[in-house]
Amino acid sequence: MSIVAKSWDDDDTLLAALKQAVRARRDVPPDFVEAGKSAFAWHNIDAELAQLTYDSSRDSELATSVRAESASIRALTFSSAHLTIELEVTPDSLVGQVIPAQSAVVTVQPRSGAETVVPADEIGLFSIRPIPPGPFQMYCRTDAGVDVLTGWITL
Amino acid sequence: MRDDPSVIALVARVGDGDQDAWDELIERYSPLVWSICARYQLSRQDVADVGQNVWLLLVEQIGKLREPAALPGWLATTTKRECLRVLRAVRRHEHAGLPPEDQMPPDPAATTIEQEIITAERNAALRAAFAELPRTCHELLSMLMSDPPPAYVDVSATLGMPVGSIGPMRARCLDRLRHSQHLVAVLGNQAEDIEVREPRGEHRG
To answer: Helix %, strand %, coil % for chain A, to 5?
Structure first.
């Protein structure tokens, strides 16, 4: 590092370093940066993050066998330490379940547009209709007070 | 190097719920997160997933960071961990079917995470310093950095500046950049390194 520090005394080297710095920022796609900015919407919500742990569309073997039975079912699983959310994509809606089964309130937050709130019944079942057209996140608060947030979902 | 006062101020403002400060933090650090993702040859979709998780974890953790100056290190480590998690998931499935344009290009000059952090911090300081330059300097240096470098005649015509002034102006602008507080924050600690190292070199000589 000390070599770099010294060489910045040289105008050409400094300009080249600046050029590299500007390019490094330009290489980052705008939507990558925007996703980071929108994440702040959750800053005052003390929720656990549920990671995507299963996506049938990424599992080619399973996708083939599912396609044989039904053309359109895609299944996703989000897991956190205390809660799992399973989601199935049907032609006109999303059908989900909170596990362990319990009643909850599920908020669907699209990246742009208004949020939708749907109840999950006592066995944790909920449905979202219509399917959000763009990226969205789900925020689930169980009646027992467990808060879980998923990452962005694009279907 | 890791105690840039502007970052400490940003983190404090984020703690107060300041979206603008958060946006600035994302602008500053997205190249670091992106460059680490680029090391793992993930698909664009997977890189997007990694990014989303890293930012959400940052939202969750930023209030708990004991040392705001440790933020770049925390981001780098978290990004690396998330990339490896996605990579393990991807490897379980067939990977060969992805079209080439959907894959991140391999990074031929892969460096260590620590180097990645140092480069990213240096770049962020340079960009911050550059953003604060007067407009004339900003325009001139932007033009001089284009590929291929323009002839001074063209620079003169575009910026309405006599050809003879371009060289001296370039030197003045770069000098302003060099003395920006952002670069002093980065170079200050490096200068200490130099001072520690050089006397030893002389004795050895």
So the answer is: 30, 35, 35
Structure tokens at B19: 């979206």
- Name the token pair of B124: 């962020």
In B, which residues are within 8 Å of A60 by CB distance? 93-94, 97
Torsions phi, psi of A117, nearest 5? -115, 125
* Lookup: tokens for A69: 């039975």
Cross-strand pairs, B29: none
What does the pLDDT look like over A32-77, one tens digit per residue?
A: 999 899 888 877 777 888 888 888 877 654 444 444 444 557 899 9
Minimum-distance CB partner of B123 among A15, A20, A61: A20
Query: Which of A21, A35, A60 minimises the CB distance to B48?
Result: A35
Among A35, A53, A14, A52, which Cα is nearest to A110's? A35
Pick B55's closest partner by Cβ from A5, A14, A35: A35
Q: Which helix (DSSP H) or strand (DSSP E) does residue A51 occupy?
A: strand A48-55
Alpha-carbon distances of B40 from A16, A145, B52, B106, B171, rounded to whole Å = 27, 38, 16, 7, 40
* Interface touch B55/A51, C-beta < 8 Å: no
Do residues B72 and B186 touch, judged by C-beta distance below 8 A? no
Q: Give yes or no for A62 touching B (CB within 8 A).
A: no
**Closest alpha carbon to B144 in B153, B136, B152:** B152
Gyration radius (Cα) of chain A, Å: 22
Residue A59 to residue B49, Cβ atoms within 8 A? no
Omega within 30 of 0 (cis) for the link into A100: yes
How do residues B8-60 score in pLDDT, each as one tens digit? 888 989 988 899 999 999 999 999 999 999 888 888 888 988 998 899 889 98
Cβ proximity of B43 and B98 under 8 Å? yes
Residue B162 and residue B153 in contact, taking contact as beta carbons nearer than 8 Å: no
Distance CA A45, CA A109 (A): 13
Sequence-distant (6+) residues with CB within 8 A of B48 are: A31, A32, A35, A152
User: Cβ of A26 under 8 Å from any chain B Cβ?
Assistant: no
Amino acid residing at B83? C
